[in-house]
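Thread: quick sanity check before group meeting

JM: Hey all, I'm pulling together slides for Thursday and realized we never actually wrote out the predicted structure for the chain we discussed last week. Dropping the sequence here so it's in one place. If anyone has concerns about the input, flag it before I start.
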Amino acid sequence: MAKYIASVTIKNMRRVYSDGTTFIVAHIDSRGVEHTYELPSPAVDRLYALTQGETLTKDEAADRLEPFAGQLHLTYQRGWKLCFLVLEMLVVLVALGKATIAKRGNSYYFAVH
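JM (edit): ok, ran it. Output follows.
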């Protein structure tokens, strides 16, 4: 059974859960469609290690993670789809208190502690 961690709002509210080995991020988009992402804990840990101490966008974070995406067995391993997975991983870091988020213009920036 997945344990609720926290909610984070980026355009829409996202609910973050963990079952110990996987983080689950769920949100309902503006059309009322629910999206759920399952993110392996090792992938979130690797993203944290690669970005700790920096402030960056999801695209910049995806560039850091892309060389490791294959060995982390991510659903998407490059391009814009990887960017969306990385956004959800960054949401997990915010939910865990390991990052904060700020909007500047049309972009969201994540400060990873």
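AS: nice. Residues 6 and 95 are 5 Å apart (CA to CA). The helical segments are 41-51, 58-65, 79-95.
JM: adding both to the slides.
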